[in-house]
Design goal:
- The complex is a heterodimer.
- By secondary structure, chain A is of the alpha/beta class.
- Chain A has a single domain (4-93, 173-319), classed as P-loop containing nucleotide triphosphate hydrolases (Rossmann fold, 3-Layer(aba) Sandwich), CATH 3.40.50.
- Chain A is built from twelve helices and twelve strands.
- Chain A has helices at 46-53, 84-89, 101-104, 111-123, 127-140, 146-149, 159-171, 189-206, 217-223, 241-246, 251-259, 300-304, and strands spanning 4-15, 18-30, 35-39, 62-71, 74-75, 94-97, 177-181, 209-214, 226-231, 234-240, 311-314, 317-319.
- In chain A, a hairpin with a 2-residue loop joins strand 1 (4-15) and strand 2 (18-30).
- The longest helix of chain A has 18 residues, at 189-206.
- Chain A is globular.
- Chain B is α/β, with parallel strands linked by helices.
- Chain B has two domains: 5-98 and 178-322, P-loop containing nucleotide triphosphate hydrolases (Rossmann fold, 3-Layer(aba) Sandwich); 110-174, no CATH class.
- Chain B contains ten helices and twelve strands.
- In chain B, helix 6 (192-209) links the parallel strand 7 (180-184) and strand 8.
- The chains are: A alpha/beta, B alpha/beta.
Chain lengths: 328, 327
């Protein structure tokens, strides 16, 4: 059975321009010890989906519009966002690593205070024990000279080191699930490699599940076992990493893979095939498939019928599309 | 370097750009940020030279020196036969007409209060190349070249999408028919599905108009796709310079190897068998760079000599240049 099962999650935002269905019936699950990738371009609803699971969406303008988040047999969406049940889960059993470590760490608190707060709150440690554990955590994530640097403030750390502190915070209470929201978008590639290898080693060692939310197809190809591709607030394709990359079936996934340059291709060997048009504006969307205006594979049915439900196209491989595409 | 001077559009020799660090009321100089630390390279006619490296390696500073947006500390930049690093400020405009620039941020690099047409026409006015109807015609033509509808000329930047805004930036860069265009991270602010549109546009324009590009970016996959040759920079210096396919198939510098292995490829099967080199530590500060080879403290091949002398960028055959004594 899945560790976390998200069913038909809906999160809407009421804006002055109209209703934005940021997550519109998102379903995904995470198994024990698995690395899952959630991929999509900016504004596709990937961050909103995981923030909704964590109940970190401010309301208003956000609205829990439906769905279930089953964790340990209970539906988390039944709890109040600030209720004791959610507070006990957040930061202990389910944790998050955010994109921008400078804004997600508190600039006026020392690294020690930020790490020990969680430990004292969730694990009932006293000050001395928490400090010791915090130093141990910093060592685990590869912060050099941890015993000394624990008294520093976030601005004294480099971007990569700050993200290591975020990782230390995320693993501090032996979580079952870590959501990493664009964890390496703000750092350079060699630092990205350092951080992702570190995260992979840690989750393997601690038998934790990791959800990597990113727009980088390479990152999910390297680390994720299963992948969900999102577009305009919905999951449009999901499956094992191998099948998604070797036999993508949804026109958007195919388009996305054809539009990125791959390392090692000779100069002039392949012309990139862009996806024409723009990602949709999510305000007052039509009921038909949101990819329709940009789709090169569309058939007559697409414009007449509502956005298709996910259907199986292979082992654990699902797409939300009426068209059957052979080959790549 | 071997090519004859006729094939060259620009030759950069021993370029240095140091930014002084000052302190106190009297702004006493206490040190330098060595953003670009003695680099030499050439740009050939009609080629795309990629300049790749991580943030702070000096790639943008190099681009800005070439445009003479900065006055270099030392070295020469020979462009169409003239050393533009020595040209006095008031005369530089004549040389700059032949160069265009495309900036990274399509939001910050366009004046939000100016209409798109006026933005694109600005260089023509500055260089007194067109007025009145001729100006309007040229702007219309530029809009068409970059794939924008000329009827949108009177709109202001915020009415355009990110990709369209970058097209406005490209049209502006093309306005004076430049021979060299410095593209400074032109696609990194755009969505994945839009990036390919801009890359293809840049490639088409190069073929149609015979342009030369200096393409600055941190994404090696993109740089490799668009460039004929690639220079890899680290902490103000060029570590390796060669053909873009040679760089991938036969990287020689330990830093290039680490950089290549750090970039994930969207192919899980290939990823499983790829060698991964995870560098230790972080990039040192350009204020106080390590002696000798700048990369030696993080290099797995480093020996004592590496910290004593700076390795020259030497040709190891077929125009493959590498700055490492261990190769």
């Amino acid at each position: 059975m899945a560790l976390l099962d998200v069913q038909d999650l809906k999160t809407y935002f009421h804006t002055e321009y109209g209703l934005v269905k940021a997550a519109d019936g998102v379903s995904f699950h995470i198994n024990q010890g698995e690395i899952v990738g959630l991929v999509g371009e900016s504004g596709c609803g990937k961050s909103v989906s995981i923030l909704s699971v964590m109940q970190l969406i401010t309301s208003p303008p956000g609205e829990k519009a439906g769905g279930k988040v089953i964790f340990e047999g209970k539906d988390l969406l039944k709890y109040q966002p600030n209720g004791p049940e959610m507070r006990a889960l957040r930061g202990s059993k389910i944790t998050m690593i955010f994109q921008e470590p400078m804004t997600s760490l508190n600039p006026v608190l020392t690294i020690e205070r930020q790490l020990t707060e969680t430990l004292e709150l969730h694990l009932d440690m006293d000050k001395a024990a928490a400090r010791e554990r915090a130093i141990e955590l910093l060592k685990m994530v590869g912060v050099p000279d941890a015993a000394k640097r624990i008294d520093d403030y976030p601005h004294m750390f480099s971007g990569g080191m700050r993200q290591r502190v975020m990782i230390a915070m995320a693993i501090s209470c032996n979580p079952m699930i870590i959501f990493a929201d664009e964890p390496t978008t703000a750092v350079d590639v060699t630092t990205q490699a350092q951080l992702l290898e570190l995260m992979k080693d840690l989750v393997t060692r601690l038998d934790t599940s990791l959800v990597i939310v990113t727009h980088n197809l390479g990152v999910v190809a390297r680390y994720a076992q299963r992948i969900y591709v999102m577009y305009a607030g919905r999951i449009i394709e999901s499956g094992p990493a191998e099948s998604i990359f070797a036999q993508p079936k949804h026109p958007y996934t195919i388009g996305l893979l054809n539009s990125v340059p791959k390392l090692g291709e000779r100069h002039g060997e392949r012309k990139l095939i862009p996806i024409y048009g723009l990602p949709p504006n999510l305000i007052n969307m039509p009921p038909t498939c949101a990819f329709l205006p940009r789709c090169t594979a569309k058939i007559g049915r697409c414009a007449k019928e509502p956005w298709p439900e996910l259907r199986s196209v292979g082992k654990d491989h699902y797409i939300s599309c009426y068209v059957d595409i052979k080959g790549k | 370097m071997k090519t004859s001077t006729n094939d060259m559009i620009m030759e950069v020799k021993n370029l240095k750009m140091y930014f002084p660090i000052t302190r106190g009321l009297l702004r006493r100089k206490i040190g330098d940020v060595r953003a670009v630390d003695d680099i030499s390279f050439e740009i050939r006619k009609h080629e795309t030279l990629g300049l790749v490296g991580e943030s702070g390696c000096g790639k943008t500073t190099t681009g800005r020196c070439i445009l003479r947006l900065y006055q270099p500390t030392d070295g020469s930049i020979i462009f169409t036969g003239v050393d533009i690093s020595k040209v006095p400020e008031r005369k530089i405009i004549e040389h700059r007409r032949d160069m265009g620039v495309i900036f990274q941020d399509p939001f910050g690099s366009l004046n939000p209060r100016q209409s798109a047409g006026s933005i694109v026409g600005d260089p023509l006015k500055v260089h007194r190349m067109a007025t009145g109807k001729a100006l309007k015609d040229r702007v219309t033509e530029l809009f068409k070249i970059v794939g924008l509808d000329p009827s949108m000329m009177d709109r202001v930047p915020h009415e355009f999408s990110g990709g369209q805004r970058q097209r406005i930036g490209i049209a502006r860069a093309l306005a004076c028919n430049p021979s060299l265009i410095v593209c400074d991270e032109p696609i990194s602010a755009l969505d994945v599905s839009i990036q390919a549109q801009i890359i293809n546009l840049l490639e088409e324009l190069q073929q149609k108009l015979g342009l030369t590009y200096l393409f600055i970016a941190h994404d090696l996959a993109v740089v490799q796709h668009i460039s004929d040759r690639v220079a890899v920079m680290y902490l103000g210096r060029i570590m390796e310079l060669t053909d873009s396919s040679e760089l991938y198939e036969n990287p020689l510098h330990p830093y290039t190897k680490a950089l290549l292995s750090a970039i994930p490829i969207p192919d899980p099967v290939a990823e499983r068998t790829r060698m991964r080199i995870v560098l230790k530590g972080e990039v040192p500060s350009p204020v106080n760079p390590p002696p000798g080879c700048h990369f030696h403290p993080r290099c797995s091949l480093a020996i004592a000599e590496c910290s004593q002398m700076r390795p020259p960028l030497r040709d190891v055959g077929n125009g493959h240049y590498v700055a490492c004594i261990r190769v």
